[in-house]
């Protein structure tokens, strides 16, 4: 379990090298990062990303004074892995206030929407009064969005027998793109496709992922943009707090 979380944090770190923005075209910038090994061999995105996920490797700047020169991938020593693991555990065990997004206001009622998910289930914020609503705004070509999906799925699994908690993912992509992605990358939220008019048109969101938790009265109680060490913790804690409220 600890190693899985450590790997998750490594993916988050790499995600921040190139921050996902409003359109999927930005993922090309993420994949165009130059990564070499000590011999000067250039690694493809799939290659260096796969090595990082093993937890055995890390990246450092080729030139500390010029980050545009790219990165070198190197194998961690046991001492370096121990230090990394200690840092990861520190972040996991000590709450750091999660930065709020610029698109919602804590304590303010969320602007409602009505839509159908990809399975044609009707989803209406107004009709869900009395339920806790967990929202995720994302798109397929967003590396940080993809990185957090396994952790979000774990939250869904924890509350799958509670009908008063609803998880909704508003995706920017079309049906076919999402369907192809979900075939190998399950996302257990209710997924709304072509949700750009909700994300951008209604809420003005231009940073992804953005996560929101709404209470039983439709009031925003948690919201965050980007992926941080406390995003998942913040979602979990808010859900638990709302469940325990009278």
Features:
38% helix; 246 residues; four-stranded mixed sheet; 8 helices; five-stranded mixed sheet; Glutaredoxin; alpha/beta
Can you tell me about this structure?
Helices cover 38% and strands 20% of the residues. By secondary structure, it is α/β, with parallel strands linked by helices. The chain folds into 2 domains: 2-93, no CATH class; 114-244, Glutaredoxin. A 5-stranded mixed beta sheet has the order 9-8-7-10-11, with helices on both faces. The two termini are 33 Å apart. 31% of the residues are buried.
- C-alpha termini separation: 33 Å
Largest sheet: 5 strands, mixed
Mean of the pLDDT scores? 82
What is the CATH third-level topology name of the largest domain?
Glutaredoxin
Ordered list of secondary-structure elements with their pairings:
Blueprint: H1 2-17, H2 27-31, E1 35-36, E2 42-43, H3 45-53, E3 57-61, E4 71-75, H4 78-93, E5 114-116, E6 122-124, E7 132-138, H5 143-158, E8 165-171, H6 175-184, E9 190-192, H7 196-202, E10 210-214, E11 220-225, H8 231-244
Parallel strand pairs: 1-4, 7-8, 8-9
Antiparallel strand pairs: 1-2, 3-4, 5-6, 7-10, 10-11
Helix pairs in contact: 1-4, 1-5
Task: Write a concise synopsis of the structure shown.
It contains 8 helices and 11 strands. It has 246 residues and is α/β, with parallel strands linked by helices.
């Amino acid at each position: 379990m600890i190693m899985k979380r450590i790997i998750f944090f490594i993916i988050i770190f790499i995600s921040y090298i190139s921050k996902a923005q409003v359109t999927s075209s930005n993922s090309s910038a993420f994949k165009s990062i130059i990564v070499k090994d000590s011999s000067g061999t250039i690694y493809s995105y799939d290659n260096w990303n796969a090595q990082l996920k093993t937890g055995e490797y890390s990246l450092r700047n080729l030139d500390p004074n010029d980050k545009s020169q790219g990165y070198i991938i190197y194998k961690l020593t046991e001492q370096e892995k121990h230090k990394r693991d200690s840092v990861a555990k520190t972040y996991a065990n000590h709450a750091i206030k999660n930065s709020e997004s610029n698109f919602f206001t804590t304590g303010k009622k969320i602007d409602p929407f009505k839509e159908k998910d990809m399975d044609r289930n009707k989803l209406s914020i107004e009709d869900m009064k009395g339920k806790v609503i967990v929202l995720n705004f994302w798109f397929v070509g967003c590396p940080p969005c993809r990185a957090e999906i396994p952790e979000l799925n774990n939250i869904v699994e924890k509350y799958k027998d509670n009908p008063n908690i609803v998880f909704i993912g508003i995706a920017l992509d079309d049906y076919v793109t999402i369907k192809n992605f979900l075939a190998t990358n399950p996302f257990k939220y209710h997924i709304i496709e072509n949700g750009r008019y909700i994300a951008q048109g209604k809420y003005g969101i231009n940073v992804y992922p953005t996560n929101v938790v709404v209470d039983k009265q439709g009031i925003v109680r948690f919201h965050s943009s980007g992926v941080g060490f406390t995003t998942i913790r913040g979602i979990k804690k808010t859900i638990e707090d709302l469940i325990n409220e009278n």
